[in-house]
Amino acid sequence: MPELPEVQTVLDGLSQAIRGRKILDIECYYPGTLRLAGNLPDPLYPRQAESFRRRGKYMIIGLSGGLSLIIHLRMTGKLVYDPTPGEVLAHERARIKLERDEAVHFIDIRTFGKLQLCRTDELGQYLPNLGVEPLEPGFTAEYLRDALSGKKAPIKNALLDQRIVAGLGNIYVCEALYRAGISPLRGSGSLKLKELKAIVKESRLVLAEALAVGGTSISDYRRIDDKTGEFQHFLQVYQKQECPKGHPLENIKQAGRGTWWCPLCQK
DNA sequence: CAATGATCCTGTCCGC
DNA sequence: TGCGGACAGGATCATT
Predict the structure, then answer these.
(1) A132 lies in a domain?
(2) Domain check: are A69 and A145 in the same one?
(3) What span, in angstroms and rounded, lies between the C-alpha atoms of A63 and A16?
């Protein structure tokens, strides 16, 4: 499941592969995967891919002439750079066609991923409200204290809320809470500043470590060259039976998603 | 307003 | 062998 480290890894790969290149067309093979804003210029193509940035789990590619392409991989989306593309691939939902007959495939088994083309000056209308970036200076214990004050929702749910922190997903929230020694069931508003500091520190660490090895490949996630990331080998609790200390883990459901945690290590 | 649940999807895995 | 059902989950929308 692409979270911040995976999205950043894909984005870096995409930037390497197509920065400065001309996009000749974007074809859509599954209804709704490619969405066009209503007021786009004609002709729409060609457009040069000029800039590459990330906000939360959204990739934002700046195109020449004041346009932007927003890409969200959701759960099973993949971008694959292909210098010699042929027929439409299995599960290929869209294709970014480049000059010299090259392409980037958007492959997405479960079809939840989206490509949105819009004017750059209207980007705000096409991105949801997103909270602080967890690897930037604004992500502090004090920020979390203010954002979570009075909230009754479990800390696990709050950390998954992209309006509070943008980029964390199920895997890294489970890992960060384990490392911080905090139970995922704790009420958000009940956490002390010291505990929030541990959450901030461990979230940053786990994200940075995962980013350094190209993300976590549990099932579908791949880099742009279709290679796997390596952080799955370093997970301590996600989809595990026992924690590093040998304690049995509990697997519960929170907000419809699996939580793995150690009742002995996390309080 | 906040919190929860349903929804969108399909490949994989499990039990019978 | 094959089938039905549960499960995986990010974000959005509807409901309580």
Answers:
(1) no
(2) no
(3) 15
d(CA A117, CA A60): 10
**On chain C, which bases lie within 7 A of the protein's CB atoms?**
7-12
Structure tokens at A204: 């940053």
Distance CA A213, CA A35 (A): 32
Last residue of a domain, one of A102, A126, A150: A126
For residue A245, the model assigns a pLDDT of 94
Q: Is the residue at A134 inside a domain?
A: no
How far apart are alpha carbons A221 and A207 in whole angstroms?
A: 16
- Whether residues A122 and A148 share a domain: the answer is no
Pair type for strands A34-36 and A114-119: parallel
Where residue A199 sits, what CATH number does that domain have? 1.10.8.50
Q: Does any domain span residue A243?
A: yes
Closest nucleotide over all strands to A187 (CA to C1'): B3
- A257 noted as active-site residue: yes
Rounded to an integer, what distance in angstroms lies between the CA atom of residue A59 and that of residue A50? 13
Of A75, A100, A126, which residue is a domain's last?
A126
Partners of A49 in beta bridges: A63
The pLDDT value recorded for residue A61 is 96
In whole angstroms, what is the distance from residue A239 CA to residue A47 CA?
43
Low-confidence ranges of chain A (pLDDT < 50): none
Per the structure, how many domains does chain A have?
2
Q: How far is it, in rounded angstroms, from Cα A198 to Cα A166?
A: 18
The amino acid sitting at A16 is Q
CB A224 within 8 A of CB A80: yes
pLDDT of residue A20: 97
The active-site residue out of A54, A57, A78, A156 is: A57
DSSP symbol at A33: S
pTM score: 0.95
